[in-house]
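Quick one - inputs below.
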Amino acid sequence: MPLCQICKQREATVYFTRIVNGFKTNMYVCRQCAGQEGIKIDLNSLLTGLLAIQGEEIEEGRELSCDRCGMTIDEFNRTGRMGCSKCYEVFFEPMQVLLNRIQGHTHHIGKNPNKSGSRQSNELQIVQLKQELADCIRNEAYERAAEIRDKIKALQMGKGVNM
Amino acid sequence: MSKWYIDAGPDSDIVVSSRVRLARNFKNYPFPRKSTREDQENIIKETSNALFMGDPGLKERLSLIMFRDIPLIERQVLVEKHLVSKELAESDLVVGALISDDEQISIMLNEEDHLRIQCLASGMQLEKVFDLCNSLDDIISERVEYAFDETIGYLTSCPTNVGTAVRASLMLHLPALTMTGYIRDVLESCGKLGLAVRGLYGENTEAHGNMYQLSNQITLGRSEIDIVLSIKNIGLQIIEQERLLRLELLNRNGKRLEDRIMRSYGTLRYSRILTSEEALKRLSDIRLGINLGLIGDLSEMDVNELILNIQPGSLQKYAGRLLKPDDRDSMRAEYVRKKIEEKTKSG
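Output:
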């Protein structure tokens, strides 16, 4: 992270363009200095900046565009939004790096529409419930944990009967 | 049908409301911004069909509101009630919402994502609203194929929602933490824990009336229930701190606090001009006064209702006409005076 261009001590977390008498200057500053300078931070543009696919990620993907909706990396960097589900396949690699940066993870844990409700086998439901049970215990939600334990028991019993 | 905010929920001295929303997209259509108007129409139709065929009872409970059919002021009221986002109200796509008559359920159609399934309840009821969202999601997914990837989960227009695409939030009233300045520590800790804290009306808004919205930012790599419970647990800790501080303020500086609260009560009962900012500030004092047992003839729910109804859109709907800002302030004072009079008489 670059150093703040005003105090030259803290890390710069705010990036903005200042236009004075028609001259554009790009500034990197820290939050404190931004506050003192009376710079109103537009959270949206800040977020779009953080969301940008940067550096090496760009070089690899510069030429790519989504064949379904036409999304490109440049467009994504401008809007911070993907165009369709196919984009996530087309930009898979840069997206993995980006997700790791903004979410701290690259793998989904939790609900899966292909495995939920009536479409899901007992076994899969039990695996999912056990995961939920572990989360509840870790969060000390014992009442809910007891409910889930009962559900698991019921499913295991059901399985016995079916067999 | 009475609205959700009329009922008292658990921990309602501090928690105004619990909210969970799930973002979902159809596999077969590009995300709303890249879709055609025809796609957008189809998404609305297919969602309604999936819900009504999956659970015929929902046909009675949910109304489909197409935004092109309602006046601007009605859209603004929906935003003020937290039923839809400002982005949806201002969108030029074919947008709508499926809203339940108790206003507990609101499914936004063609916002940033095709679907934003959102459920609200008063007080601390995060698990309950999560279960409700989840069951609506199950019903829709029986007939709709979602955009989902086995590795990164539910696919959303913005990568900050990918994964579970769940956002759980609590609206907290924190006057004592704010008055004493400890709120800064709370905000800082929340930031470190990866949680967002926003004002009454979401992103980029100030915490008017000492209202703070606490929500998760991370949606990938943690299960839905894990996210929901962690918000609940951090919320409970903040509640504990706020309660302790309220008692301390009362013990240490009781007369001064009581004076401030009763002055605010007087202002709301008798003033002739009330800006929205002042009204929220005074209502925050009244809410605290009710919690501390200083005001007995109003309830927290009355205050919650007043907070919703003094917003510009709701006020103009009440007046039945468009009002200039100055007229709004006097209409607001009149409305608050009348409501307090009604409530204290009937109570």
